[in-house]
Amino acid sequence: MSQIQRILVVDDEPGILQNVTKILSKAEYEVFQASSAKEALEEMAKRSYSLLISDIVMPEMNGLELLKMVKNQWPLTQVLMMTAYASTETAVKAIRLGALDYLPKPFTPDELRALVDRSVAGDLYEASVGDVEREDIDAMHLNLPLDMLSEADVGEGFCDIGKKVCNVFQKLGHTCKAGEKKGLCPQEAKKAKSEDAAPAIQELIGVDMPFNYEEVVEATGPEYVANLGRDGFAFMPYEDLKASAARMEARLNRAKLAAMYKKKESRIPGTTDALSDITDAVGIEYVKHLDRDGFSRIPFEELKGSVEKMEAKLSGKEIELALASDILVVDDEVAVNNNIRKILKKGQYTVDQATTRDEALEKVSKGFYRVIILDLKMPGVVGLELLEAVHKMQPNAKIVIITGYASIETAVETSRLGAMLYVPKPFTPAEIRTAVEKASRLAA
């Protein structure tokens, strides 16, 4: 090693500080210690460091807050995060805030040395994140998993078998004979048994996530729900479908609909957008050919002329954002894909869909999207190749990863490759809406 690298280790546990210092000193690094984030900032103000290694869960100021401040004040200092409370959420935040990597505790001396060697050798790289997105990341809030907390952290009634606070366990004098005998929480066993039983229609709503039954009925009608199968599809008899369509058509007043397109200040169906605002944004050609379904079928020559006029006003990224659709959902599970579309369409998003690797690549190559929701594990996809390809073709799109195979490693890698949010399955409608709202806001 031509030059001794100076490293600052930050941890509120003295034992960890001593062990990490001993391991790295043997590897001929110059190691300094800090027992808090505040002490670390004071140390960094005195001398420069090649690498900062910080714990995440610390009193007063946590490691993510420290990371955010360090990258703002000393952007050339590289950072590694370590924690005994590893989660995909904090892993993504750490990488998007500028950390090179994320090391769960406990780790071996070899794992630590190898990671530090790669860091100082330049083998690892920071995720490319804009200042606006980085500033938007909430470093103060840490969502710690319950099963990683001790009884002292959660109070009385914490059962080690179920890894949760249990009223029954507390009432029985902090004993659980049934659980100790089988090595399984009785409540969890009962829950698993009930899940094996044939579900009612209400339980079929959202195969992979807990949708609200009433919301689905309101959006699709009782006929749809009554004919819903276990695979997430509804096979409605023709007469029921016909009657449902007739009732829907009866709600529309065609005279009012026709008049709407003639009024300057009328509004687009299903939105709060004034027609004049749409005209200003996309041109009179779009509005002139707008149909009842909300689609505009413009003759090619008029479309070509409209695009030429737009190009005369805009260039580069502005054109891409102006032409961008809202969201592309990529998931090979049709039921999940459709459920996400239904959730987001209620938020007035325009949603496009792809269920295969090739279909996703084709759509990404031909159109622009502000947000791309991407499933990690799909047929024909090797590793993270689809994410890499999508990010390369549309670097300005905000990518939200959804996966049923969540892990710290994939959370770190996907964040490095351009994904700004990582949502493990199963997720709730509120979780997917929150993720998309955040991504859309940052894409604007």
TrEMBL record:
User: Which Pfam families does the record match to this protein?
Assistant: Response_reg
Q: Which GO terms describe its biological process?
A: phosphorelay signal transduction system
* SUPFAM superfamilies on file: CheY-like (SSF52172)
Provide the Response regulatory domain boundaries: 6-120, 326-440
Q: Which residues carry this modification: 4-aspartylphosphate?
A: D55, D375
Going by the UniProt record, its keywords in alphabetical order are:
Phosphoprotein, Transcription, Transcription regulation, Two-component regulatory system
Residues annotated as signal peptide: none
PROSITE patterns noted in UniProt: RESPONSE_REGULATORY
- Report what the protein is called: Protein with response regulator receiver domain
State the organism of origin: Desulfatibacillum aliphaticivorans
